[in-house]
Amino acid sequence: MSKILVIDDDSVIRVITKRALQNQGHEVAVATNGKEGIEEAKKMQPALIICDWMMPFADGLEVCRWVKTNPKLTTTFFILLTSRGGIADRVKGLNTGADDFLSKPIDITELQARVRSGLRLHQLSQDLQTQKHLLEAELAEAAAYVQALLPQPLLGSVSIEARFIPSRQLGGDCFDYFWLDPDHLAIYLLDVSGHGLGAALPSVSVMNLLRSHALPDVDFCQPEAVLKALNDQFQMSSQNEKYFTIWYGVYNPKTCQLTYCSAGHPPAVLITSAYSSEPQITYLKTPCLPIGLMEDSEYVSDRQTIPLNSALYIFSDGVYELDPAQAKIWDLNTFVTLLKNLDIDSSLDTVLDKIYSLNGVEAFNDDFSLLKVQFK
């Protein structure tokens, strides 16, 4: 048994329609005008509404607009009852949100058939909404799992903090940092092409491989060897056409040497504080192709001495490639200037606040990942 609301200022039509629908086994309520119909719809939350077009207080189009914008009635099927037969009138009704039309005078057989059809579509919409809610719950659970995999802040003479804001529930960015041994700290950030679940799965796979040191015969202290092994294993032809960029570095605190290699990834930015002059900016990047594009890609590491009182920023391109519709140009150089003008001890929350305020954005178009490694 379905709940149906009939709204019409004609008492004869109300009686005929109500009796015909009750004979089909439905629970039927009636209202004598648009205002009363809206109040009844609030209480009843019907599966289907049959509403006259021309009525006092609020006409059928006004009632339809209200129904279609009410979150509790998103699946309610709306039939507009009218003596108007013109194409322009029907287009107007459809543009307002009506799902179907019923012509006056009412033919009972047609009425019952259109109601049966409307209720089937209502049930289908409810089933789809249920599936949508289940999928959203599963995606939220998967997003919580990915967030739980990300490392906690690192404290000590080398400190690391991070911020990760996926553009959807699940994102293709991933990062990690861990001590390979007492003298070698590995740090990396990767960005899988695309968004959502399809990008998150390879991202987590790479994280698990690197965290468990599961790449065979690879010295994880050698960034070029790590990237070559990843390229061998993650060719896009076998990864649903997904490739990824990555920046991978290994820092030795005894020698203050950072060995790094990047594959199509934005450069890491090293900012060295000089109290007597402007901070010094160094871009750390190697000219290598993203992982998965070509089987025979070559990867070459580089090395950088890290002065004390320096900060290294590693990030995905979602940090600076924001809304292209913004009148103000925001690019890598602008982002680096922002970092340069901040106090070197500023937290990443300060960086985020600056990005939001300078660009007038509330959400990012791409996954946002940002690491700050501070050498004290």
UniProtKB/TrEMBL annotation:
Alphabetical list of Gene3D superfamilies matching this protein: 3.40.50.2300, PPM-type phosphatase domain
UniProt-listed InterPro entries: Bact_Sigma-Reg, CheY-like_superfamily, PPM-type-like_dom_sf, PPM-type_phosphatase-like_dom, Sig_transdc_resp-reg_receiver
UniProtKB keywords: Hydrolase, Phosphoprotein
Domain Response regulatory stretches: 3-119
Record flagged with keyword Protease: no
Modified residues (4-aspartylphosphate): D52
Sample GO molecular function, one term: phosphatase activity
Transit peptide is among the record's keywords: no
Any Gene Ontology biological process: phosphorelay signal transduction system
Name recorded for this polypeptide: SpoIIE family protein phosphatase
Source species of the chain: Drouetiella hepatica Uher 2000/2452
